[in-house]
Amino acid sequence: MLLAVLMLCPCRAGAHSEEASQKHQAGDPFPKEEGPAVGIDERLGAKIPLDATFRDETGKTVRLGDLITGPTIILPVYYSCANVCNYLQGGLARVLPTIKNRPVAEYRVISFSFDESETPQLAARYKRMYLTSMNVPFPEDGWRFLTGDAANIRRVTAAAGYSFQRRGRDFIHPVTTLVVAGDGTIVRYLYGTTFLAKDVSLALLEAREGKAGASIRKVMEFCFSFDPTGKTYVFNLLRVSATVVILCAGGFLAFLLLGGTKRRKPGTLADKKEQD
């Protein structure tokens, strides 16, 4: 599915309100240029290349496979963006302390810049900013900030169906978050800069690939479904209500049948004694 709403994140510093950002997201017209269409072509079930290498916020070269060892939330951004990329990462920073999943032990977050000119020093600065904004302790290894060369960036974004274009110092790009399993399989796309705790928790549950047990996964999949239009998990009220009604009716019927059988048994024995 190719999203029609594209977003530009300005590099220029300045005061930007989220309301102004939303208006900007609606899109000022941009001149056409050669290159891939900008947007998301969802590739659920595809795998991102775990052998792709980046530099982390300390400047160390790391493989994605060394970081993605379980459910992982991936945010494609560029750090010098003063607009929606900040809202995207800030929105996630606000919701992570509210979910029950334990960082590092049960999930990890990766921000990676698709601007090959950005440096680990810049990544480290933004890491400090977002971890500090949480106002609660969050492990350093729980949220990694990566930079890389153009070749590795394109490998990851192409595998995810994530297309962007450079416009001068800025980029036109979708505002999208990926959730992947430990083997790099893409299990969910989350859209926009606002996160709901239940959406993040259920997406991480999907990414566990049955590690929590098939029964839990089946119950969650039965009670909740992902709405591709609203881009959120919704409670299947009719399905759950119908199931409860059927179970109650079945239980009541079983009670009547078993209760009637028990009441008839004494009478049957008495009849036999009278016949004797």
Question: Can you describe what's shown?
Answer:
- With 276 residues, the protein is an alpha+beta fold.
- 39% of the residues lie in helices and 20% in strands.
- It folds into 2 domains: 7-234, Glutaredoxin (3-Layer(aba) Sandwich), CATH 3.40.30.10; 236-276.
- The chain contains 8 helices and 14 strands.
- The strands form 5 sheets. It has a 5-stranded mixed sheet, with helices on both faces. A 3-stranded antiparallel sheet has the order 1-10-9, with no helix packed on it.
- β9 and β10 form a beta hairpin.
- The radius of gyration is 26 Å and the shape is elongated.
- It starts with 6 loop residues before the first strand and ends with a helix.
Describe the largest sheet: 5 strands, mixed
Number of domains: 2
Helical content class = 25-40%
Q: How are helices and strands ordered from N to C?
A: EHEEEHEHEHEHEEEEEHHEEH
SS content category? alpha+beta
Number-wise, the strands total 14
Fourth CATH level, the homologous superfamily of the largest domain: Glutaredoxin
Shape: elongated
Beta-strand fraction estimate: 15-25%
Q: Give the radius of gyration.
A: 26 Å
Tell me the number of helical segments per DSSP (H or I, 4 or more residues long): 8
| CATH topology tier name of the largest domain | Glutaredoxin
CATH classification, class level of the largest domain: Alpha Beta
Determine the N-to-C terminus distance: 81 Å
Output mean pLDDT.
Answer: 78
Sequence stretches where pLDDT stays below 50 over 5 or more residues = 1-33, 210-220
Reading side by side through the largest sheet, how are the strands ordered?
7-6-5-11-12
CATH architecture of the largest domain: 3-Layer(aba) Sandwich
